[in-house]
Write a structure and sequence with these properties.
Elements (H helix, E strand, L loop, with lengths): L1 H21 L8 E6 L11 H17 L4 E7 L15 H4 L12 H11 L3 E6 L3 E3 L19 E4 L2 E4 L4 H17 L4 E4 L16 H7 L6 H23 L4 E4 L22 H5 L3 H7 L4 E2 L14 H11 L5 E6 H6 L11 H10 L3 E7 L1 H6 L4 H9 L21 E8 L2 E7 L12 E8 L12 E5 L3 E3 L8 E9 L9 E6 L1
Parallel strand pairs: 1-2, 1-11, 2-3, 3-7, 7-8, 8-9, 10-11
Antiparallel strand pairs: 4-6, 5-6, 12-13, 13-16, 14-15, 14-17, 17-18
């Protein structure tokens, strides 16, 4: 029965992806993300009001470019860009680890509010194992290393939780549970840093944990992979138990394995998730331990060791059991000319590839401020071409596929503020069924209602009203309103004819 259920879920995902991909230029459902990182120091020591204005400016710009999800880095080295009882304030926020921002504020809560206000999702991005980067000279007394130094190791000039200790998995799950329980995040996100990137000539110092918790493994590589596998599985279970609608996503390094290492690998020659970082991403996908996958395919089409086209097709074939999005590098994309038309850069060719593959349901931009900077008119092309129309988030039927009830009491009313379309929220039996957003469509009077056409979407809003653009009252339109739940399942439509 389990296998049959998995096949049904996979078929539903592929059907959803196929419907989205059928309209290559403008799919109705598409993940359109952007990473906002802290480790580059862009916010370090910045005055609170300046940082708020900077983030608002970025979000407004990204919203204008059609971005519908922000992946915001909140835990880079067992620290916090949010109010935590367990870990210190990040130096990437205030300049000194453990020093609280003044005046007091919570960047994560601020970003949740500002993203949701704009109809964007907020994915809280954490690094699980890294505990101290090279630029951190002093750890706060609240830092977990100062409480249990025996659970950490130093490697390549940095400090790490040793993944071999069960206590560390338990601790990381506690941190994630705390974030999910206290904040209205849409997802927990982790990037490509599991076991650290290999440092030539230096052995990762996990002899103690292997001796104590080897679990009968004779192959240390297999044991290390199993350590990460257990963490991913336990994190997924932790999130589901806490808030079942919160997603868990990973953005791994762009190569899983090379063909010369494994027949199932890609025709590439580079560092490997499976062999070098001990990250068995395909296992997580196929076991359903993660809810989406964003491999970082940052190279250009035609790269001699890691060709973009080779990799996107490989991931599209191998990672279809869960929603697949593609990590795009803005600057590298515009730096390289199109192979077929050298007078333009590779953005168009990459998007054509992405939208031609049914199992690819979106992309994520590395990094947000690069989109804002608009090199090679990248942001302009998103706004005017690839993200010309709004997009709903992809579906996650393996979490929940029940649609909310339809809206009630849809009617147009003249008010002192103008001509307003009002409706009421539908009733819900559980939190999973609650309507949290609404989609408003507009059609010509005698036009066939086609909710698969994103060009008809006027707005995606949390409000239960929409101000109508009244002109002379002589032209008839049909407005259609649907409800969305927390996982973007869409209700049946309700319509109203108005004269504008």
């Amino acid at each position: 029965m389990s296998r049959i259920k998995n096949l049904i879920v996979l078929a539903a995902l592929l059907l959803n992806a196929f419907v989205s991909g059928a309209q290559t230029a403008s799919p109705k459902r598409e993940f359109r993300g952007a990473w906002i990182q802290c480790v580059n120091g862009q916010f370090q020591g910045m005055p609170v009001e300046t940082m708020k204005k900077t983030l608002i400016s970025q979000l407004d710009n990204l919203k204008g470019a059609g971005i519908n999800a922000i992946i915001f880095q909140i835990r880079a080295e067992a620290d916090a860009l949010y109010k935590s009882s367990y870990e210190p304030w990040s130096r990437f926020l205030t300049g000194t680890q453990g020093v609280a921002p003044s005046p007091s504020w919570d960047p994560l809560q601020f970003m949740i509010d500002e993203c949701h206000k704009r109809g964007m999702e907020l994915h809280a991005w954490i690094n699980p194992y890294r505990a101290c980067t090279k630029g951190t000279s002093k750890l706060s007394p609240l830092h977990p290393y100062n409480k249990h130094p025996e659970l950490f190791v130093r490697y390549a000039g940095q400090l790490y939780f040793d993944p071999g200790f069960p206590e560390n998995r338990k601790y990381i799950c506690k941190i994630v549970r705390d974030i999910v329980a206290r904040y209205n995040v849409d997802a927990i996100h982790m990037d490509d840093y599991f076991y650290p990137y290999p440092n030539p000539g230096e052995k990762f110092p996990d002899d103690v944990s292997f001796a104590a918790y080897g679990r009968g493994f004779t192959d240390r590589d297999q044991w290390r992979r199993d350590n990460v596998n257990i963490l991913i599985k336990e994190l997924h279970e932790t999130i589901r138990e806490c808030k079942p609608w919160v997603k868990f996503g990973i953005s791994p390094f762009g190569i899983y394995r090379n063909k010369r290492t494994s027949p199932e690998g890609s025709d590439t020659r580079g560092l490997q998730n499976y062999d070098d970082l001990y990250a068995d991403v395909l296992l997580w996908v196929n076991k359903g331990w993660i809810d989406y996958n964003i491999p970082q395919i940052y190279w250009e089409i035609g790269h001699p060791a890691a060709d973009y086209e080779t990799l996107i097709k490989w991931w599209a074939e191998k990672s279809a059991a869960r929603p697949l999005y593609i990590g795009q590098d803005v600057y590298r994309t515009v730096k390289n000319p199109d192979k077929k038309n050298p007078s333009v850069h590779q953005m168009g060719a990459k998007y054509d590839l992405q939208r031609s593959l049914p199992s690819v349901q979106g992309s994520c931009q590395w990094y947000a401020s690069a989109v804002v900077d608009n090199p090679g008119n990248y942001r302009t092309l998103l706004a005017k071409n690839y993200h010309k129309y709004p997009a709903l988030q992809p579906l996650y039927p393996f979490i929940d596929d029940k649609v909310p009830n339809k809206v009630k009491k849809l009617k147009d009313v003249w008010t002192e503020y103008g001509y307003i379309l009002f409706w009421s929220s539908p009733k819900a039996k559980t939190v999973m069924d609650e309507a949290v957003q609404y989609v408003v469509y507009r059609f010509e009077n005698k036009e066939k209602v086609n909710l698969d056409d994103p060009s008809k979407i006027i707005t995606i809003t949390k409000d239960t009203f929409y101000k109508l653009p009244y002109d002379n009252g002589k032209t008839k339109y049909r407005y259609v309103v649907t409800a969305l739940d927390r996982l973007n399942n869409e209700s049946k439509p309700v319509s109203e004819k108005v004269k504008l």
